[in-house]
Amino acid sequence: MKHRIVSLVLSRLALALVTAIIVSFAVFFATAMLPGDTATILLGQAATPEAVEGLRKAMHLDDPAIFRFLRWLAGVVHGDLGVSYANNMPVAKLIGGRLINTLKLAGLTAVIAVPLALTLGITAAMLRNTLYDRCLTIAIIGVVSVPEFMIATLAVLLFAVYLNWLPAVSFTSEIRTVHDFARAYAMPVVTLTIVISAQMIRMSRAAVVETLNTPYVEMALLKGASRGRIVLRHALPNALGPIVNAVALSLSYLLGGVIIVETIFNYPGVAKLMVDAVSTRDLPLIQSCAIIFCFGFLLLTTTADVIAILSNPRLR
Amino acid sequence: MTSVTTSAGRKPGPTSLFGYRINAVGVVGALIVTFWIVVAFAAPMIIPHPVGDIVDTDYFGPMSRELWLGSDYLGRDMTSRILMGARYTLGISVASVIIAGASGVTLGMIAAITGGVVDMVLSRLLDALSSIPSKLFSLVVVAAVGSSIPVLIVTMAVIYIPGAYRFARALAVNINTMDFVVVARIRGESLWYLIRAEILPNIIGPVLVDLGLRFVFIVLLLSGMSFLGLGVRPPYADWGALVRENIGGLPYAAPAVIFPSLAIASLTIAINLLIDNLPTKIRDREAS
Amino acid sequence: MTSLVQIRDLRVEATTDSGRTIEIIGGVDLDIAEGEIVALIGESGSGKTTMAMSLMGYARAGCRIVGGSVVVDGVDMVALPEKDKAAVRGAKIAYVPQSAAAAFNPAIRIMDQVIEVVRIHGVMPLEEARTKAVALFRALSLPNPDRIGDRYPHQVSGGQLQRLAAAMALIASPKVLIFDEPTTALDVTTQVEVLRAFKSVISAHCIAGIYVSHDLAVVAQIADRIVVLRNGEVQESGTTADILERAQHPYTRQLLAAVAPDHEPRRDASGPTAEALLEVHEVSVGYGPLRSDGQPAIVAVDNVSLRVARGRNLGIIGESGCGKSTLARAIAGILPPFSGGVVFDGHELGRSARHRSPDQLRQVQIVFQHADTALNPAHTVEDILGRPLTFYHGMPRKQRSGRIDQLLDMVKLPRALRQRRPAELSGGQKQRVNFARALAADPKLIICDEITSALDTVVAAAVIDLLKELQRELDLAYVFISHDLSVVEAICDDIVVMYRGRKIEQITPEDMAKPEHPYTQLLLSSVPKLDPTWLDHLRQDPEQVRAYCQR
User: Fold this and answer.
1) Which residues in chain B have Cβ-Cβ distances shorter than 8 Å to C19?
2) Mutate: best of A23, A135, A138, A146, partner B, most B CBs <10 A
3) Per the CB < 8 Å rule, is B143 touching A286?
4) CA distance to partner chain B, nearest, from residue A53 (Å)
5) E strand residue ranges, A102-252
6) Rg of the Cα trace of chain A?
7) Could you tell me the pLDDT band of residue C100, with boundaries at 50, 70 and 90?
């Protein structure tokens, strides 16, 4: 049986690798479709044809696309992400600190959202069709139905405009005390938490409800087991795989969420960097940011699948 | 991910709609959706002021008898701008969901029936496509080819093809194992007949519901992109773009920033409520 | 005398998905004395399981006990608060489910599940419970009783799980046991062993209980009294002997008649030398990827040959997994064999349907077991029957309509059903439509794959009669696949016995009394008879049992 688990996990990892390659390829070519000549864009309309020609050679722009892709991929593997068009800084250096900021925001959100959402989701499943469950369901429909920016604007309206607790749309980089920290992070984290919790509650509730409807849970009830025992001993261990899957998938929504949240709160993270790069059409920067996000997403979904395989009792 | 939460015990007075039993909440959802569809069609005829005209001396004007929903950052009438915005938000989203649905569902059924290599290649490719987060994908496309309305439509469609494909394929795979499909196959029926007569009629209900949910995601994504300034561009404005234009009014809680948001929320929540309250397939099955 | 269980005027309602309320138990009375086993007999939808469950004060989701009382050992289970119900469940009343495979939690070791009742109710120390469990495993003749508890449910067979579920129910020495069709999912040879085990523990522990089943012959072995249910009402009740020998109610007689169909010997002029319609030559079929020697990973049918003469019937019998359905699929061209060939009417058929001509496909039709999945729920009866008429015969609309009426008449369905969809038909009606669709092609051979297995016994008997009648009129040949020996016996001229993918014997119905191959002997002797002493008198060679039963 051990052998089967190992081979399943390995094949899942191999699949992730294949997907990663396809995705890098897609990202590279989407950006390579950029209309207009890159060299002309860089040098401006006034540049001499000779200068443009020289730059094209230097940038290998005349090579077939597949070579450019391979050269670029080799660079990525070696940590060389190219040089930003906008300000001639190495992309790796531009991204470095920003990435840590984004991870800080995402990590903080995850630490708060995961326990919160799982508690709510599992209790909602246990108390199916009670008032509590219905209110939660309605709240979730509300949250998943509105765009992230609206939750952010509501947070601003509530905390900054009406309650006047926090500064409105601005992010201070001077964090000296815990108080500063809380003031700076409160609204982005609250917004992101709401966004990803809704999905997580919905999916974890569904996973537990599904196991609660199985014959072995009915059997436990007919053995005289208490409600707590039924859920903790019989339902939850079997719902673990789907729940972990729900967590990982919800965390991948973080990626979509940070793009909006970083922009609206002016937070110096990778997503903000990328949105700015899109406005300035800074190709190497866009490519690198996109790859980071895709790989993050892939990492999460692959982890979810691997955990689902490991937690399947039938493979033990 | 797209699981519809249905609760069996809930029954606030079932009403009859087109011969189906739908409860009151569902009816309200249906009415709101219908309202916005009508608005999208009739907008140019019902707007009180031309969308480009500056009619207020003040910017971020409050709600008044004259300007129901106040004025925007240039003093233009918000009521008119929101009514017109419905055209862009609904129009682009509907076009995208139709393209995504038609291609995703067709490919999904072909993959399910044909199986083998076709299925594997299609599934791998579309899986890879879906492992690019949707916002990121649109950002990259917008960076590459700009954000004209046709580009937006195609981009959103491409983003949601894998989801529609996977959903339809999963359903079709189940139907495909049914004996009636086997019977049709060994009768010698063509692929086209199998898709049209045996598979499609049995998955169309759930598929339409799924497309409804996908429509909500498209509306949200489009609004999000416009909010970032990377979606619908001036002089056109969808609801997301209206929020962006007027975000400066946020500290004053101006109606110009609140109402476009409410418009989006009312549409998406209404669709969700409608879908959540659709009747589960009416069947009488006794417990034996 | 007050009995152990007294059910008085029990009423249970169910709410359907469309919000309608229907009564599934309508005012039933029932008594069970100490140490008495009462069987609830009835067909699907009769309310027998619902009624058995009410003993534990439990109704499944969507169902509600709305009236009456269920007094078990002096306590009314209906009136009890949920907490007190839990105290009784498992300890005083225990439940043996229909599908033990689903009722065991896949994530927990068997022993922990078996003694869980003790853990919950604290009736004895856990060590003692473990010892008792092993003793029960031994009493239920489970293999390796000391170690089997360490396994996970997916690591033991269905027959074993069913007995383990009985051990789980018995662990706290309950007064009342509920058996819910505990052997329905098992093969006959396994069923014998499980029934024996149940019977011995029941008498050893002097247990009272309810045995829910649709199978009169099984119930005859176990029950002291039989209650016949239909549509949530008691039709008849009496001692087992009374019901079997002196049934009063017409419905009970129908049930009895369906168990033992009359086998009029259907010998006609055509002897075994008649012209062959179908010849299967050394066919092997398998699943999974091909191995290096060209064989697939799993070989389901191994080198089977058979021959069906024009206008005659061949039965194929065997237990689940013997390859009989796979063979049927290979003949029909659904699953191409990896070696061997099929000759029909003198012409070699293509391996898969894609390589056969439309006319070849038309002449061999297959009818599947589950009419629910064999009929497209989106099509009307008219669409279903009309399609083969258009496809094979290119009939114009008017002619097609007339032919559909004829087909409905042939399978004895009212013409008014034309516009209905499958969901609006009963199980028997669906199976008739399913069969009519095969007839629409004007075939020479119809392969019937377990077509009566999903039907209630009375309905199944009617379908078999119909098949016989049509054969006389239309000069058809059938290949009849079933695990139900009495059905095959009733309709077939020759019977092929399959075991683990091989054809082990071909016999005629007359030979069924004295088969030669030991597996056939074992298989035929394992079919329960209506005689209540059958199980006690049944002697099977333990060597054979060990050799052929995959328990």
Assistant:
1) 11, 14, 21
2) A146
3) yes
4) 22
5) none
6) 24
7) confident
A258, closest residue in chain B (CA to CA): B135
ipTM exceeding cut-off 0.85 for this assembly: no
Chain B residues whose beta carbon lies within 8 Å of the beta carbon of residue A19: 124, 127-128, 131
pLDDT digits (tens, 9 = 90+) for B55-107: 777 788 787 777 778 788 788 888 889 999 999 999 999 999 999 999 999 99
Question: Would you call C107 and A313 a contact, using CB atoms and an 8 Å cutoff?
Answer: yes
Contact call for residues C209 and C56 (beta carbons, < 8 A):
no
For the segment B121-155, what is each residue's pLDDT rounded down to a tens digit? 898 888 878 777 888 888 888 877 778 899 999 99
* Length of chain B as a residue count: 288
Report pLDDT for B6.
37
How far apart, in whole angstroms, are the C-alpha atoms of residue C46 and residue B287?
Answer: 9
| Distance of alpha carbon C171 from alpha carbon B149, whole angstroms | 71
Q: Is the peptide bond before C153 cis (omega within 30 degrees of 0)?
A: no
Closest-CA distance of chain B to residue C547, Å: 35
Residue pair C281/C305 in contact (Cβ under 8 Å)? The answer is: yes
Q: Mark yes or no for CB contact B251/A161 under 8 Å.
A: yes
| Residues forming beta bridges with residue C26, ordered by sequence position | C11
pLDDT in tens, C364-400: 999 998 888 899 988 999 999 999 999 999 889 999 9
pLDDT of residue B285: 28
For C366, the closest chain B residue by CA position comes to B183
Q: What backbone phi and psi angles, to 5 degrees, belong to A151?
A: -65, -40
Q: Do C182 and C223 contact (CB within 8 A), yes or no?
A: no
Judging by beta carbons within 10 Å of its beta carbon (0-12, 13-18, 19+), is residue C341 exposed, middle or buried? middle
CB within 8 Å: A31 and B10: no
Q: Is the dihedral of CA A296, A297, A302, A305 positive or negative?
A: positive
pLDDT in tens, B247-278: 888 877 788 888 999 999 999 999 988 887 77
What beta strand segments (E) does chain B contain? 15-17, 20-22
Write down the pLDDT at residue C131: 92
The string of DSSP codes covering C21-75 is EEEEEEEEEEEE-TT-EEEEE--TTSSHHHHHHHTTT---TTEEEEEEEEEETTE
Instruction: Judge: A30–B140 Cβ closer than 8 Å, yes or no.
Output: yes
Query: Residue A278 in 3-state DSSP?
Result: helix
Q: Cα–Cα distance between A195 and A193 in angstroms, integer?
A: 5
Residue among B232, B242, B235, B234 at smallest CA distance from B263: B242
Residues of chain A in Cβ contact (below 8 Å) with chain C: 213-216, 218-226, 229, 233-234, 237-238, 313-314, 316
Which of chain C's residues have a Cβ under 8 Å away from the Cβ of B188?
Answer: 353, 356, 358, 361, 391
* pLDDT value for A216: 92
